[in-house]
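Tokens as discussed.
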């Protein structure tokens, strides 16, 4: 093999490999009136200025991308990271995964909550799932599942 072909071949193989890993979330839509006026915080649409989408663990980011890729639309986050004071004001548990950058409450415009719940039950990265009656969003966190669990730990009406 010619000495110049080796680096070129390596670059081609590398780019094809990385290209295959591009999450389908990159192609998720954010068009429509449900997204107008929503702020984009670090690649995630947020429902208000109080929502912090910066502090999200990579595992949670990948879970969000799975939802976006599956439904072809961007999520809108109602709650992300919360400091202790914000968590208390929101009525969160003292050990809330929101305070650890490991939880998000979100919805996807046009996708029924029941479909989000059903999908969350099948996503391996989802460790906890909360469903609140009368609310359009679900809570997803990336805690470790207890030994022997093949689905998320569920609470609050799931």
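Sequence:
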């Amino acid at each position: 093999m010619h000495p110049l072909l080796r680096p070129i071949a390596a670059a081609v193989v590398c780019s094809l490999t990385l290209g295959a890993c591009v999450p389908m979330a990159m192609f998720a839509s954010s068009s429509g009136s449900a997204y107008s006026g929503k702020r984009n915080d670090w690649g995630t649409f947020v429902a208000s200025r109080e929502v912090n989408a910066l502090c999200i663990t990579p595992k949670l980011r990948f879970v969000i991308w799975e939802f976006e890729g599956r439904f072809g639309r961007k999520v809108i986050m109602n709650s992300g990271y919360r400091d202790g004071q914000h968590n208390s004001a929101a009525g969160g548990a003292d050990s809330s995964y929101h305070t650890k950058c490991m939880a998000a409450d979100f919805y996807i415009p046009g996708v029924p909550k029941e479909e989000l719940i059903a999908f969350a039950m099948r996503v391996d990265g989802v460790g906890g799932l909360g469903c609140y009656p009368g609310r359009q969003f679900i809570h997803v966190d990336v805690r470790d599942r207890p030994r022997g669990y093949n689905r998320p730990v569920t609470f609050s009406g799931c």
